[in-house]
Structure of Obg family GTPase CgtA:
Amino acid sequence: MIDEVSFRVQAGNGGKGSVHFRREKYAPRGGPDGGDGGDGGSVYFVSDPNLTTLRFFSGKDRFAAEHGRRGGMARKHGENGEDIELRVPVGTVVEVVSGKDERKGALFADLDARDMRVCVARGGHGGRGNWYFRSPTNTTPRTAEPGTPGEARWLRLSLKVLAQVGLVGLPNAGKSTLLSILTAAKPAIAAYPFTTVSPNLGVLTEYSASLVIADIPGLIEGASRGKGL
């Protein structure tokens, strides 16, 4: 079960402003009309109650949104870069880390409810075109701004796994064996009682659906007070 991943997110840079002058039949030396660049796309996480693991992110190192487009003539605004939405399970904790192998970071977000939408990297702003820089003393500005860079950061995602099914029964009833048959989990299995002293989790995948199953330690009278553990 994939319950911890690290990767880099990169928002799009803002597009460049345009340096352009009107060229028309009756105005061969028209004024500036360079448009602004488009904003860069942002990266969002959205909590999806239909997901149970972070398997989609396994083996991936980077997710990037589109850059904003350059401004055009006639004060045409450049197109904004497209945002990307990455869907994660409910219970995903997001931390900012310094690199892929960093084990602990600063808490960024806790997507603990369904349909939460969190921006994890915001796109840069588009640069202003030369139309913006016209003035009575500078009627032909040849200046335009570059776009600002989009945010980029390394993130570590961990999942507070919530089981949909619990296997409950007496010690040595075969709960761990059943879990190992239904899923890829490999819990300790032995002929003595209380082999399982803490819950084991496994994921049952059937077609495109998945189900988290928890193998609960064997229950006896007094288990709620810690007896048997």
Observations:
- The chain has two domains: 1-161, 165-225.
